[in-house]
Design a protein that fits this description.
The complex is a heterodimer. Chain A has seven helices and 19 strands. By secondary structure, chain A is an alpha+beta fold. In chain A, the strands form two sheets. In chain A, strands 1, 2, 11, 12, 13, 14, 15, 16, 17 and 18 form a ten-stranded mixed β-sheet that branches. In chain A, strands 8-3-4-10-19-5-6-7-9 form a nine-stranded mixed β-sheet, with no helix packed on it. In chain A, a hairpin with a 2-residue loop joins strand 6 and strand 7. In chain A, helix 1 packs across helix 3 and helix 2 packs across helix 3. Helices cover about 70% and strands about 0% of the residues of chain B. Chain B is mainly alpha-helical. The chains are: A alpha+beta, B mainly alpha. At the A-B interface, helix 1 and helix 3 of A face helix 1, helix 3, helix 6, helix 7 and helix 9 of B.
Chain lengths: ~375, ~190
C-alpha cells in the first residue's frame, strides 16, 4: 500500500465493516486521540453517505426522463413466451383430427391464409418491393428468387437476393394420412454482416445487426438531410424504399439538440437480411409432438419437423458466425438449435434468449420512436 | 419488447430500457387507488422499485425470473410501509394540534429549506472528479461491488490494483470537499 493511501485504506475498511477486533481497537484508539484523524473519518463518513444519496438522486433524475419517454412512446411489455396460443392451437387440432369435417376446415384455412397473405404481401410490397419467392412448389426450388424476380434489389452491394419473411407462399396444404404437411423455408446468414437500411415515411429500418443498441443510436438532421449517429460514427440517410448500404460519412461526438420531430426505428432481426439456402428442404408435419430428424430422400437431405410449425411464422436458418455454422429453427418467438447428425427423432429444445446470444439474433424487436436532433 | 430483452439490454448498459418498466404503472395504480393513493404515489412507488431492481441487477443480486411480479411486490411492500408512516404521522399531527411540538417542527423546516443538500454537494464533487473515478466510486461505494468484480468489469489487472485506484479516486474527491461545509449537510 502506498504511504499516502494508508489512512484512506484504513477508513474505507472501517466504513465497510472489514476490520477485525484487533484492528478495530487500534482504530478506535487513534480516533479518540488524533483530532486530525477524527476529522478525516468524519469527512469520509459524510462522503460515503453523500455518494449514495447523489448516485440515487441522479438515477432518479434520469428515471424522470425515461418516464417522459414512456409517456411519449406508449411502450408496452409483452410476455416472454407465447405458449398459450400454441396450446390453444394444439387443443383445436386434436378435436378436429380424424373428423371428416377437417377437410372442410383445411379448405377454409387455405382460403383464409390466401386472403391474409394477399394483405401481408401488399404490405411487404409497399415497404420492400424487391424479393419474393415466386415458385413455392413442393420441391421448394431455392433458386426461385434469382430466376424469376422482377424487381431485383439493385442497391444491395452484395447483389444477393434477400427473401422477405413471412412469405406464407411456401405453404403446401396437403393431406398425408390425415396430416397436414407444410414446407418450411430454409435461409442462411452470416453474422456480422454489412448494414443496410430502408427509410420511408418516418420509418427507418436497419438490417444486418439485430444487436444494435438503440441508446447509442440517434437520428439528426442538418437542413433537410437526415443522418444516423451510432457510437460516434455518422452515416448519411437518404430516403430509400429498397435496401441501401449504410455508408459512413464521418464521425463526431455531437449530434445536436433535440427537436419535436420523431422517427420510428426498427432494428430488423437477422432473418430479414438472410438469403435462401438450397442445401436441403424442410417438411413440417402437424402432429401433437415436438421433434425433428434428418433423412435422405432421393439423394437429397430432408429435415422433418413434427409439431405445430406453420410456414408463415416459422423458418430454418443456417447461421455462420465466428467460423462456425449452426442450424436454428425459429418459430414465432421461440428459437431451437438443430443438430444435423440427428437421423433419429430428437426432442426440440428451446434456447433462452437470456443466455444464447445467437437466439437473440432472430427475435423481432419492437420499433422504437426516437427524437430527431438538429445539428447546424 | 419482452422482459428478458429488457434485462439483456440493461445488462449491456442500455440504461434507457428502464423506460419500458413504466408500462407496469397501471398495475401499481390499481392497488394505490384502492388505498386512497393518487397518480403521483403510483409513479413514485414504481420509481423506487425500479431503482431497487436496477441496483440489484447491477450488483448481481437480481436472480428472479418474473420481473413484473418482483417490481409489484416491492411496490406493495413500500406502499404498506408508507401507509403505516402516514398513520403515525396522522397521530403526530393530532399531537401538534394539541400544541406540543409546533414550534420545534417549524424551526427545523426553516433550517432545511435554504441549504444545499449533501446529495447536491456530492453530485458536484463527483462531476468535478470525472471518469473513470466517478464510475469506480459509484460501483464500489454505492453498488458495493466486490473488488474482484470491479477489476473484471472495468478492466483492472486485479482486485488489488482496482482497490488502489478506488482509494486514489476517493482521495481526489476529498480534495474538493471542505470539512466545515460537508459536516453540517444533510
Amino acid at each position: 500500500m502506498e504511504e499516502d493511501l494508508k489512512d484512506i485504506d484504513l477508513i474505507d475498511r472501517y466504513l465497510n465493516n472489514e476490520l477485525d477486533e484487533q484492528q478495530q481497537r487500534v482504530f478506535k484508539d487513534r480516533y479518540l486521540n488524533d483530532p486530525e484523524f477524527k476529522k478525516e473519518v468524519e469527512v469520509y463518513q459524510k462522503i460515503y453517505e453523500g455518494v449514495e444519496k447523489a448516485t440515487r438522486d441522479s438515477l432518479k433524475q434520469r428515471l424522470e426522463g425515461y418516464y417522459n419517454e414512456y409517456v411519449d412512446e406508449d411502450l408496452s411489455i409483452e410476455e416472454d413466451t407465447k405458449v398459450v396460443s400454441i396450446n390453444k392451437w394444439r387443443r383445436t387440432t386434436w378435436v378436429i383430427t380424424g373428423i371428416a369435417a377437417s377437410l372442410l376446415l383445411v379448405a377454409a384455412g387455405v382460403w383464409y391464409y390466401t386472403l391474409k397473405n394477399a394483405g401481408t404481401n401488399q404490405q411487404i410490397a409497399s415497404t420492400r418491393p424487391a424479393n419474393k419467392i415466386d415458385s413455392p412448389n413442393v420441391k421448394h426450388d431455392q433458386y426461385a428468387g434469382t430466376k424469376g424476380n422482377p424487381s431485383k434489389d439493385h442497391t444491395t452491394k452484395t447483389g444477393e437476393n434477400k427473401l422477405p419473411l413471412p412469405t406464407g407462399k411456401g405453404d403446401q396444404y396437403g393431406l398425408e394420412g390425415g396430416q397436414k404437411v407444410s414446407i418450411i423455408q430454409v435461409l442462411q446468414a452470416n453474422y456480422p454482416q454489412p448494414l443496410f437500411y430502408t427509410f420511408k415515411d418516418s420509418l427507418l429500418s436497419v438490417y444486418g445487426d439485430p444487436q444494435l443498441g438503440l441508446i447509442r443510436l440517434h437520428i439528426f438532421k442538418t437542413g433537410n438531410q437526415y443522418y444516423l449517429w451510432y457510437d460516434g460514427d455518422v452515416y448519411k440517410l437518404d430516403p430509400a424504399n429498397s435496401r441501401t448500404t449504410l455508408k459512413k460519412t464521418g464521425n463526431s461526438e455531437d449530434f445536436g439538440t433535440k427537436s419535436p420531430e420523431r422517427i420510428k426505428v426498427q432494428v430488423e432481426p437477422l432473418q430479414e437480411s438472410a438469403t435462401a439456402s438450397a442445401k436441403f428442404s424442410v417438411r413440417a408435419i402437424q402432429v401433437n409432438d415436438n421433434s425433428y430428424f434428418f433423412m435422405k430422400e432421393k439423394g437429397k437431405q430432408v429435415l422433418e419437423l413434427r409439431g405445430n410449425f406453420m410456414p408463415k411464422k416459422c423458418f430454418v436458418i443456417r447461421l455462420k458466425k465466428d467460423n462456425k455454422q449452426d442450424l436454428y429453427l425459429v418459430n414465432k418467438s421461440s428459437v431451437y438449435l438443430l443438430d444435423e447428425k440427428n437421423t433419429n427423432p430428437a426432442r426440440l429444445k428451446e434456447l433462452s434468449g437470456l443466455i444464447s446470444q445467437e437466439a437473440r439474433l432472430f427475435i423481432k424487436r419492437d420499433a422504437v420512436s426516437l427524437p430527431v436532433y438538429i445539428r447546424k | 419488447m419482452t422482459e428478458s430483452q429488457i434485462i439483456d439490454e440493461l445488462k449491456k448498459g442500455n440504461e434507457n430500457y428502464l423506460k419500458y418498466l413504466y408500462s407496469f404503472l397501471p398495475d401499481v395504480r390499481r392497488f394505490t387507488r384502492q388505498n386512497n393513493g393518487d397518480e403521483e404515489d403510483a409513479k413514485d412507488l414504481l420509481q423506487d422499485a425500479i431503482i431497487t431492481f436496477y441496483d440489484n441487477l447491477r450488483s448481481g443480486k437480481y436472480l428472479q425470473s418474473n420481473l413484473k411480479g418482483y417490481l409489484l411486490t416491492i411496490c406493495r411492500n413500500k406502499w404498506l410501509d408508507k401507509l403505516d408512516k402516514l398513520k403515525r404521522q396522522a397521530n403526530k399531527i393530532k399531537d401538534i394540534i394539541s400544541g406540543q411540538e409546533e414550534a420545534e417542527e417549524d424551526r427545523q423546516f426553516e433550517f432545511r429549506i435554504h441549504r444545499t443538500s449533501l446529495s447536491e454537494y456530492l453530485q458536484e464533487g463527483l462531476n468535478k472528479l470525472g471518469e473513470p473515478c466517478k464510475t469506480l466510486i459509484e460501483a464500489t461505494v454505492y453498488l458495493k461491488l466486490r473488488m474482484e468484480q470491479v477489476a473484471q468489469d472495468y478492466g483492472y489487472a486485479d482486485a488489488h490494483s482496482a482497490r488502489q485506484q478506488k482509494l486514489r479516486c476517493l482521495k481526489r474527491l476529498k480534495g474538493f470537499i471542505s470539512y466545515e461545509q460537508i459536516i453540517n449537510l444533510i
